[in-house]
Each structure stands twice: as structure tokens, then as C-alpha cells.
Amino acid sequence: MPVVATAGHVDHGKSTLVLALTGTDPDRWAEEKARGLTIDLGFAATDLGPDRLELVDVPGHVRFLPNMLAGVGAVDACLFVVAATEGWKPQTEEHLRILELLGVDRGIVALTKVGLVDQDTQQLARWEVEERLTGSPLADAPVVAVDALAGIGLDDLRAALAELLGQLPPPTDRGRARLWVDRSFAARGSGTVVTGTLAGGTLAVGDEVELRPSGRRARVRGLQTHGAARDQVGPGHRLAVNLVGVSHQDVRRGEAVVQPGRWAASSRFDGSLGVLAALDHDVSRRGAHILHVGTAAVPCRLRVLGPDRLAPGEQGLVRIHLPGPLPLQPGDRFVVREHGRGETIGGGEVLDVDPVVRVSRAKPDRSVARVVAERGWVSADMLERLTGEPAVPTVGRWVASPEALAETIALVAAAVEGAGPLGLDAAALDKKQRLVAEAGLVEGVALLDGRWRLADAAPDPLEGHPWLAAVRAELFSPPPPDGVDRTELRELARRGSVLERDGTWFAAEAVDAAAVTAAALLAEHPEGVTLSQLREVWGTTRKWAVPLASLLDASGATRRRGDLRVAGPRLPGA
Ligand SMILES: Nc1nc2c(ncn2[C@@H]2O[C@H](COP(=O)(O)OP(=O)(O)OP(=O)(O)O)[C@@H](O)[C@H]2O)c(=O)[nH]1
Ligand SMILES: [Mg+2]
Questions:
Q1: What's the half-sphere exposure (Cβ side, CA atoms, 13 Å) at 171?
Q2: Could you tell which of 9, 15, 111 is best to mutate to test the pocket of ligand 1, judged by most ligand atoms within 8 Å of the CB?
Q3: In 10 A of CB 1, how many CB atoms?
Q4: Which of 511, 500, 502, 509 is nearest to 558 (CA)?
Q5: Which of 6, 11, 24 to mutate to test ligand 1, by most ligand atoms within 8 A of the CB atom?
Q6: Pocket residues: Cβ below 6 A from ligand 1
Q7: Nearest-CA residue for atom 24 of ligand 1
Q8: What pLDDT, in 10s, does the model give residues 361-419?
Q9: Element (H or E) spanning 379, and its range?
Q10: Helix/strand/coil (H, E, C) string of 92-135?
């Protein structure tokens, strides 16, 4: 259901044409009717052949240009109106430039009020319009002569509009809904209702939604298109959304309804900026700039990237700082106006919704690879929020640039190689290093007993370590680890192969065996045994018996009671 906005100078007959086409007077307000002037946006719809045409009627008066901008921020095409009585006027020009900046490049031109002029005047007006449109996106748009009051040309206009609708591409569905609010009001009995054009995804009754930039949450209680209730609505429709959880005063025009967690929450973006050729000054950071995007109009700070200013007619890159996070995506079109002078400066396309590179080095474009390269590593979810495109993770849930991935792989390979024959404790790797290692991306390394080792290294050098063999051979009078490599010793202890007490090292088997003999002795002397009794059954000297008994206490096999040792909770067979 394509949405078409009117455009054109004040009083040129836009609203009258909308009424003639749809039967609905888009001027809703008493003040508008009294002054014969459109102030705010008006909405109307009609069936045209197989399609339904949604019209947004905008004001032509320069004072209400912000409303006009909100009206054309999310439309597929325009109905561009020029009165044959007056011809090309300032807002005819400005509206054309705005449509061009916003990428609205399809439309129909209506030459209105032709009933009020003679044939020659009408022909002159047509020539003027055609000349002015030359080189603009509407250069090839059909020009239809109409008079809404005299009923001239309306069928031709309908036919031209029907053809236009048939040519429009279907709306894109990115699985990520966004609706820029153009109206918000309290409907009797159902609370807050907002209207707007849904783009990029589907909204369904019951959905949790987020409002941007306020961050408020709400739930969709009802959806309506053309006054009919719907359970869910896909992209490309104008709709009314009944929200619970927010007051209508909290949801102004310019707020967007989006799916929570799916949009970047940055308050600055990089974009292209084309400066209007007709501007009589350069564009720099100076000036009170207003950004118009979607239905939003927000004060912004602007920095030109590269040079510090752009001349009229020039195309450049800018970084724009916003007062709050708007849900933007690359490809969104925007217009910049200067508040003080009340003039349109130019506009462009959003290129990077969350720039991370310094102003002096930023080179924004729409490439996803650039977004990844500037970050090195980015989660697939985040990348989707940044680009609006589905992202395929490289490792785990991450997307890595080829450079960042290669660097991480090289770091892991070097660390494992440098770790020596014992390998590298897996816990020494950081999260990303662990991910690439575990994903098998580091060639030639293997995980063994919690350590990364070169896969083609000799078998574990600690198996069959001579000192280990020696302490196992002399369980109760083991030799000290003289000359044993400190790293090897630490690793043997970490694995639990050996235990140390007061500087004396034992094989793990020694403590087990000592506990078994202690258990047998305690079965005969349940009242407790002395250290010398233990020393005797172990067949060793005090030098080893003291630390060994202490290890038994620590293990819970025995417990000290004065000079005696009694059964502990972990005594074998107890
Ligand atoms: N004779 C004749 N009068 C027209 C025609 N279209 C509009 N008018 C008159 O022109 C005046 C302005 O028309 P509107 O439709 O309000 O103009 P507009 O473009 O909507 O004006 P704004 O919304 O304020 O920019 C009204 O008095 C209309 O009756 C037409 O085709 N023929
Ligand atoms: Mg009007």
C-alpha cells in the first residue's frame, strides 16, 4: 500500500486535489478550514484499480516546512503540485529540493487550476514546469493538467497515479520494524494511539515495543489499517497502533516505534551531505542546525569530515551529533536546515549509525566490511543493529575482520609455541583467543588436559618424568626435587601427581598408601596413635613422617587430638 505525499507551493491546490481524489478533506483542523490553509499533515486514502493509494497532504506555507518534512520522511512517491495560475514559486523549488534530498524520486506532477487560465498560459506554465524539473529526479514524471473544482483531468490523474503505484517496488522486509510517529492522540476507551508508516518489518498485536529516542517501553494492544482491526501488519502500510504503557503526551511526532534491542542506540552518525547549490554561504559547524529524518526534527551539531566546510553545490561527509538516540540505519535519508535563517541547507544519506573512528580519520561508506574492519571483532547481533543487514558470525557469535582474525590466530599460535613442551594453560588465553583455538582455527595446536600444545610435539614429557618415577618408588622417603624444572614441578603439582608439605614432596600415591596403613593401625587402637607409631608402620624417619602425617590431617583421613591422631571423616574404610 504505497504512501504518496503531496508537495508544492502554498495555495496551489494540494488539499483540494486530495479531496477530489479521495472524498476526504485532509485539512482536519478548524483553523485550517477557517484560514483556507494547510498547517499540519492530513491523511486520506482511496482505491485505485487493484491498489490502495495512501495520501499524506503537506502544507505549502514556508512557516510549516517542518511539518512538510515530517510528511515526506517515509513516502514512496510524490504528487507534485504546481498551479497553472502562478507557476513555479519558492516552495515549489524548496519542496523539489527536499524530495530530491530525501530520495523521493518518483511521482506525478499535477498542473492545477487550469480552469482559471487560457490555453496559452497553461502551455507556458507546463513549459516552465518541464524546464525546472530538467535534471531533477522528477524530470521524466508525467505532467497532468487538472482542475479539481471544474472536474478537469481528474481521470487522467487517477490513471497516472495507478500506473505509478504499479511501478513502485515492493516494500523491503528486513525483519526489523520501525514506525516514525506522525500523530499521537488519546482515543476514547483505548488509550494511546499513534499513526505512521510501518517500514522494514512486521508489527503484531501483543508485541513489546520501544520508543526512540525516549527509550520508553509499551505493548501493542491493537493495530488498524483503513479503520479495520488487524492482528499483524507488514511493512509499507500506514497504520494506527494502539499502545498500552505510555501516555499519548509521551509519544510525540518524531518518536519512532521499534522492536526493542534491534536498533543501535548511538546519538551520533556519519553521513553524506549534499549542500544545495542555491545556498549563499558555506556549511561548517557554525549555525543552529536542525536534522530532519523520518518524522523527527531535532537540533544537531554538525562536523564536516576532512575539510572543515562545504561550499554550495558541494558533496561531502559529515558527523552529526544528536540530542538522543534515534533508530537510524545506513541508507536513511535526511535533510539539514538552519534554524536561525530558516533555510534548507542540504541533506544526504546515513552511512554509519555508530561511528567509532575519530573525525580526522573517518571515511564512512555503506560497506559492512568497513564497519567490521573498524571494530576488528563485533557480535553478529551488534553488526545487525549497525547495518540493518543480517550478519553471519565468523566464530561463536562474533564477526571478525580478516585482519583481526588472522592476528588472534597468530597470537595463539605464538603463545602455544613459546610455552614449551608443557603447552599453554587454556585459562591464559583471552575470550577471543579461546574461541579461535576451540573453533580449530589455529593450525597445529591441540588441547590436552587443559593445556594447548603443539599437536606434533613429543608425548607429554611429564609422563615418565625421572623424578616422578623416583618419588613413586620411595613412597615414604621420597627424594627432593633437586634439579627439577620449576615449571614442570608446578605442572606436576597442578595435575595432583605430587603434593608438598613444609618443603617435602610426596607422590600422590604416598598419601593414599599412608592413609590405608593409618586406617589399619587405628582399627587396632581406636583411642588414637602417636606419630612414632605411624613412623614405624611407614618405615621412615621423622623427617618424612611429620609432613606426611600433616598431609593426612589435611586430607581428612586423620585428626589431631593432643599428641595422638584419631580417625578423621575421610579415613579409608571409616
Ligand atoms: N478554480 C480552482 N481553484 C482551486 C483549484 N485547486 C485549489 N483551488 C483553490 O485554491 C485555494 C487553495 O487551495 P488548497 O487546496 O487549500 O491549496 P493548498 O496547496 O492545499 O494550500 P496549502 O496547503 O496551504 O499549501 C482554495 O481556495 C481552493 O478552492 C482548482 O483546481 N481550480
Ligand atoms: Mg493544503
A1: 25
A2: 15
A3: 20
A4: 511
A5: 11
A6: 10-16, 36-38, 59-61, 112-113, 115-116, 147-149
A7: 37
A8: 999 999 999 999 999 999 999 999 999 988 888 888 999 999 999 999 999 888 888 88
A9: strand 377-379
A10: HHHHHHHHHHCCCCCEEEEEECHHHCCHHHHHHHHHHHHHHHCC
